[in-house]
Design goal:
alpha/beta; D-Maltodextrin-Binding Protein, domain 2; globular; Bug_dom1
Length: 318
């Protein structure tokens, strides 16, 4: 009987996910639930590259696009909990989706565990430099004069820019027609080509075109102006004091990932965010490095839940 119990205990230990003392011993896949070239992809690659150096193993980016980030997050939730598959998440996938979608593809509290916070990012409203609209007031007034004629693009449903456009319409009375896109590059191409009138998206991928003079920024969506574009006023400054929204991101892992692996990944992530190469690059793109413990992610989620639940209900987004 005693031998049987010992054997059962041994088999249970062998079957459970575990992190070897030399973890990581092979490449780690970082699933990004967004298309290549967008803000999430650029940030994940920047942090992942430095983590690769620190961990001594490649951190390989895998883009899983669709459903506002739900497809990629579902892939993380279903991955083996062995420390070799992790995910890039954001306020959309960790908070907004709870209120936006009736059908949940995973249980955020049960299927995903946090590694640490990565960065906070502002969104920006931009128009083509050839556009007649030079400020937010003029753009909103023109949209009201001809309802649904002017267009504003955003990312997939469930992203901060998609919700941000709906919130913008609800709080400003802008009569724009929203067009969601799967990728930032496609939005940008259509805006520069004159096929759409405006765009709300994460600021970092657009900084180059703003500096080159191909785009004109009408407003940033955060409470404070962006460090990279301090001349661009906020939506709140332009007559809508209650408008505020931004994107923050985190690294996550499948539930059940060994604590030793989470600890090692968290340490590498924090060290990467503190490095000059990563922190300077993030700040040059108006992103603020965050970092911290897995518990800090949970704290951030708990803080955001009541805010976004009330905003989504008030904007009739559900």
């Amino acid at each position: 009987m005693k031998r049987t119990a010992c054997l059962a205990a041994l088999l249970l230990c062998l079957a459970a996910p575990h992190a070897h003392a030399d973890y990581p011993e092979r490449a780690i896949t970082l699933i990004v639930p967004a298309a290549a070239g967008g803000n999430a992809d650029i940030t994940a690659r920047l942090v992942g590259q430095e983590m690769s150096r620190l961990l001594g193993q490649p951190v390989v980016i895998e883009n899983r696009v669709g459903a506002g980030g739900r497809i990629g997050t579902q892939a993380v939730a279903r991955a083996p909990a062995d420390g070799y598959t992790i995910g890039y998440a954001h306020v959309g996938t960790l908070v907004l989706h709870r209120f936006l979608f009736k059908q949940q593809l995973y249980d955020l509290d049960r299927d995903i565990m946090p590694i640490g916070l990565v960065a906070e990012t502002p969104n920006v409203i931009v128009v083509n430099a050839a556009s007649p609209y030079r400020d937010l007031k003029g753009f909103i007034e023109a949209s009201r004069a001809q309802p649904d004629r002017l267009t504003m693009t955003s990312a997939d449903p469930g992203t901060t820019s998609e919700v941000g456009v709906k919130l913008f319409i609800a709080q400003t009375g802008a009569a724009v027609r929203q067009i969601p896109y799967k990728a930032t590059a496609a939005q940008l191409s259509d805006l520069l080509g004159g096929h759409v009138d405006s765009m709300m998206e994460n600021l970092p991928p657009l900084i180059g075109n703003l500096k080159d003079g191909r785009l004109r920024a009408l407003a940033v969506t955060t409470r404070n102006r962006a460090a990279s574009n301090p001349d661009v006023p906020t939506v709140a400054e332009q007559g809508y004091p209650d408008y505020e929204q931004s994107a923050w991101s985190a690294l996550v892992a499948p539930a059940g990932t060994p604590k030793a692996a989470i600890s090692r990944l968290n340490a590498a992530m924090n060290q990467a965010l503190r490095s000059d190469s990563v922190s300077k690059e993030l700040r040059s793109r108006s992103q603020e490095p965050l970092g911290g413990t897995p518990q800090d992610v949970q704290t951030q989620i708990r803080k955001e839940l009541p805010k976004w639940e009330s905003i989504i209900k008030a904007a009739t987004l559900d």
